[in-house]
Amino acid sequence: MIRRPPRSTLFPYTTLFRSRRSNGPDDVGFRGNFKGLLSSTSSLPPRTRLDAVCRQDRRGFKTSLRGRAAETDKVVVTPQFADSISEGDVRWEKAVGDTVAEDEVVAEIETDKTSIPINAPFAGVIVERFVDDGATVQPGVKLFTISRFAAGTSATAIPKTEASLPTPHTHGPIPSSPPPPPPVPSSPVSFKPTAAVTPKAAEVQVTSKDSDPSSSITGTRTEHRVKMNRMRQRIAQRLKDAQNTNAMLTTFNEIDMSNVMEMRKKHQDAFLKRHNLKLGFMSAFVKASVFALLDQPVVNAVIDGPDIVYRDYVDVSVAVAAPKGLVVPVVRNAERMNYADIEKAIMVLGEKARTGSLAIEDMDGGTFTISNGGVFGSLCGTPIINPPQSAILGMHAIVERPVAVAGKIEIRPMMYVALTYDHRLIDGREAVLFLRKIKSAVEDPRVILLDL
């Protein structure tokens, strides 16, 4: 039978136990073993028993603290890529010691097709980076460690260094009396008016006529080298492969944009009110291209080894100049869309391209490409085929030019269009008829409704 010690000797234990009761679920193990600890140390003197309980309390607190630290420190690893991508290059947006908010971009992984943002899982501080800027990583590689503990103190607990503190001026003792006034000149001071001042000509270095101009180059002449990102490398490779593989030929035509501009001006307000977006020119060209592709299915086909693959669907790739390179998101099943559906799809894809949130699925596939260089002022050009497609349409700037209309000279808004096609598959006749079909459908959209 255990002899109960006097109440005075139990006072430290009961006080400690009561103080530990409200510390949360991390101390359940300690509270559960408290009675057993008292039983096992009953034969010891009271002071020795108190020391044993305190040692056990400190061990439990340290274990709990380590558990909490493990939960707040998180190592972020490289996510899984798409099936066609195996690696990427890291571009850091934050450095060690930077405070980040939840879902803020810490780094980006540039792949061949897109950039994958790496966001912070919670608000905290970047305490360690495992890879350097520009390093190549694979899925599952450790990127950085973020700590939640330092998030609340990093912005306010930065100690000031001695160098940042103002240093008092110690140039001798402070004088007790003011300095004497300056002496008054005996003669009046003479002033010279500004107009009387004759400016001096700048000295010009005169070189002899017989000197070589190339040897007298002045100023700084520097250059610097940067690593090409993976997306630009991939674009360069695909464009060169297209030139080496396809027998590319380009045919041209011009389109009178008067009717499209008049339709756009007349119905812009009603279109904006109903669909909550503006009516542009791209929907007219996408709809006309779909109409022409269904009329000339060979332009929508592709060569695959010894075979020709004909598609019964139309996926139009729209070239967009993103901040990090040219991307071609795809408007899928465009043959089922009207003008409003096409404008909505282009708006969503364009916003993703500008913010860098395009996924691989948004750019995969495509049977025909439209590139609008006219937004940059291009008057005419020859686009390059986007493999594995067989043709690409190039739009250009709208310029008012004099044209002959019914025997009269009129000023009309005109646009040059170019069709580059793979001559291995598409003959000149089909290419010219295809481009003329686009011309007629853009100049008079009623052709599409009447299926002419």
Q: Helix share of residues?
A: 25-40%
The averaged pLDDT comes out at: 77
Overall shape: extended
Helices, by number, come to: 11
Q: Give the end-to-end Cα distance, rounded to a whole number of Å.
A: 108 Å
Helix/strand-derived category reads alpha+beta
Overview features:
single chain, 452 residues, alpha+beta, 6-stranded mixed β-sheet, 4-stranded antiparallel β-sheet, 18 strands, 32% helix, 22% strand
Describe it.
The protein has about 450 residues and is an alpha+beta fold. About 30% of the residues lie in helices and about 20% in strands. The chain contains 11 helices and 18 strands. Strands 9-18-17-16-12-15 form a 6-stranded mixed β-sheet. A 4-stranded antiparallel β-sheet has the order 1-8-6-3. The longest helix has 27 residues, at about 45-70.
What's the short version?
By secondary structure, the chain is of the alpha+beta class.
Give the secondary structure arrangement, pairings included.
Layout: H1 7-20, H2 28-32, H3 34-40, H4 46-72, E1 73-77, E2 88-92, E3 99-100, E4 105-110, E5 115-119, E6 124-129, E7 136-137, E8 142-147, H5 230-245, E9 248-256, H6 258-275, H7 282-295, E10 302-304, E11 307-309, E12 316-318, E13 320-322, E14 325-327, E15 330-331, H8 339-355, H9 360-363, E16 368-372, E17 391-405, E18 408-422, H10 428-443, H11 446-450
Parallel strand pairs: 12-16, 16-17
Antiparallel strand pairs: 1-8, 2-4, 2-7, 3-6, 4-5, 6-8, 9-18, 10-11, 12-15, 13-14, 17-18
